[in-house]
Amino acid sequence: MAHTHSIRSARVRLDGTDAVWVPVALGGGITLLAAIASLAHGHLGWNDAAGIVLLIAAATLAEAFPVPIEGVAVGSTSLATIFLVAGATIYGWAAAAVAGFLAMALVELGRRRPFSRIAFNCGVYVIGGAAAGGVADRFQDGTLLGLALGAVAAAIAFYVVDITLLAAVVTRSRAVPFVPSLFNYVQLTFVPFAVMASLAVILVVLWDRSPFVAVVLVGPLLATALYQRWIHGALSRLREFDRLKDEFIAIVSHELRTPLTSVYGAAMTLENQQLDERRRHELLEIISTEAARLSRLLDDILWVSRLDSGRARPFITPIEPLPLVADVVEATRTHLPQGLSLELLHDSPLPKVAADPDKLRQVLVNLFENAVKYSREGVVRVRLGSYYGNVRFSVRDEGPGIPLAQQERIFEKFYRLDPNMTQGVGGTGLGLYICRELIDAMNGDIWVESTPGEGSTFSFELPAVEAS
Ligand code: ADP
Fold first, then answer.
1. For residues 192 and 3, is the Cβ–Cβ distance under 8 A?
2. Which DSSP category does 336 fall into?
3. Domain CATH code at residue 360
4. Residues lining ligand 1, CB < 6 A?
5. What span, in angstroms and rounded, lies between the C-alpha atoms of 158 and 129?
6. Which of 316, 418, 419, 422 has most Cβ atoms within 10 angstroms of its Cβ?
7. Does residue 54 share a domain with residue 203?
8. Considering the entire predicted model, what is its pTM?
9. Which stretch of DSSP H or E encloses residue 370?
10. Which atom of ligand 1 is closest in space to residue 371's alpha carbon?
């Protein structure tokens, strides 16, 4: 976090931290005024002015594209430090303070942050820049060693100001003790700090030779930043996946327990009590539907494991789509709830499709089951048509629909709109993932169109074998 140099995470709120951010902002403001006055009275040559502008531009760019650091929740780091520390060593405290202010203010204003956050972050950069310039000055004796030591001291000064002020504001906003948190932050950020301090030294030494030569640093800096971002993205995806897996285990246990409890209860009643024929029939019915539910759940899990391990390669042959779809429609009709009907419409003639019959059947079963499960009443319309060399299958329901933002996500593994099952409709979030994987494997496309409150249409297309 230290080298976050600013609060970038929206999770850190400055409410209730007036005692920290106000003094930091005031201190920053006064330092900035003194810096401007000092620059105005100094004798800044054109070369120096151009160098400072260049460093400000570099710091602003670096600030605009921060680099996330693993394990640091408060924010991400910014390579702007390197340029500010270099500026402080080469052009002095006043230039660094102004540069820090401009880089931070430009970026934060662009992001439309609340005033308190802008004022605090700018204050940190101004004070950090001034402190860095102040200590660097003590080491400058005209030698290369003095310059390098100055840069190291400047980096340390910036780091200390930055991390202390940040720890102060974060611990205050979270009401946690200051010293242990500061210690923890230093531990987390020490390595990135050391990397940035050495890059600052390299930049200063190169700059001293010629600012033009210093441009060679752009390559490694950019590579570091991009690589860090990439790693961070990959780790975040892994974490999300891990979370979904935990949720999946919870869902599967629940999904296994519900039918098992019903089967067990029905079996016990059958065994222990004298029952009339009608009641016996009802209980047997419960046992068979719940057992079927269990077997579907296990099927889904098996499919996913087959798909993930690449064992689900399709055997594609030309097939007549209509008899296969009609068959699945008939099978679904046998267990439709009251108030729901299923219609099959189709163009004729229809071409054959290139598909694996078992996998096509699996996709249809999943889509029909979802339509039945989520809409509960109305009409489910299954359509078969031929479109430009493809056969399109669509399943339209009059159910709750799916918000636009989720329409892509529901095809992801384990993703469910209602993970807590507040609607009382169970599921594992695997069905549509399986559908998409199977359709992909058969060289087709699957998508959904939906208006919340009106219903959803799931469609997929598979290549036709002959022209219709
Ligand atoms: P499951 O049904 O087991 O939860 P799916 O992968 O089949 O898993 O579906 C993922 C999610 O997409 C479901 O949890 C549900 O929120 C949503 N969904 C799927 N089909 C429909 C539908 N026909 N109408 C409304 N929502 C649906």
1. yes
2. P
3. 3.30.565.10
4. 370-371, 374, 397, 399-400, 402, 410, 415-418, 427-433, 456
5. 6
6. 316
7. yes
8. 0.59
9. helix 357-375
10. 23
* Residues forming beta bridges with residue 448, ordered by sequence position: 458
Q: What is the pLDDT along the chain (468 residues), one digit of tens a residue?
A: 334 445 555 445 677 788 888 999 999 999 999 999 999 888 788 888 999 999 999 999 988 888 776 655 455 678 899 999 999 999 999 999 999 999 999 999 998 888 998 999 999 999 999 999 999 999 988 899 999 999 999 999 999 999 999 889 888 888 889 999 899 888 888 888 898 899 999 999 999 888 888 888 888 888 888 888 888 888 888 888 888 788 778 877 887 888 899 999 999 998 887 888 899 999 998 898 889 888 888 888 888 888 888 887 889 999 999 999 999 999 999 888 889 999 999 998 899 999 999 999 999 999 999 999 898 789 999 999 999 999 999 999 999 999 999 999 999 988 888 766 566 677 778 899 999 999 999 999 999 999 999 999 999 999 999 754
Q: Which amino acid is at 244?
A: L
3-state secondary structure of 73: coil
Atom of ligand 1 nearest to the CA of 401: 25
Domain end: 309, 328, 349, which one? 309
Looking at the structure of the chain, the number of domains it has is 3
Q: Which two tokens stand for residue 264?
A: 């067990």
